[in-house]
Amino acid sequence: DPDFAGIPTSALQLYKISLGMFSGTHYDMLMDYPALMTAIFFYVVTTVIFMLNLLIAQLNCSYQATYQDMVGYARLNRGKIVTETMP
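RESULT FIELD:
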């Protein structure tokens, strides 16, 4: 396939596949090369799994930061209540 003739062009085409910019006619041309299609399939699956793991890690980090803020505000509110009730 001429789109995957060299390393730089292959990297560019894989980047386009990852971003969804690879056209449908090129996918039809890939059906003529089953080994290349299999490699691209595994690349796409690996990329999707990696991106989902990255999303989960970011959500976990965001949750931890929010939880620490929540605990800090709860302590501040408790301290405010204690100081208001003391004469």
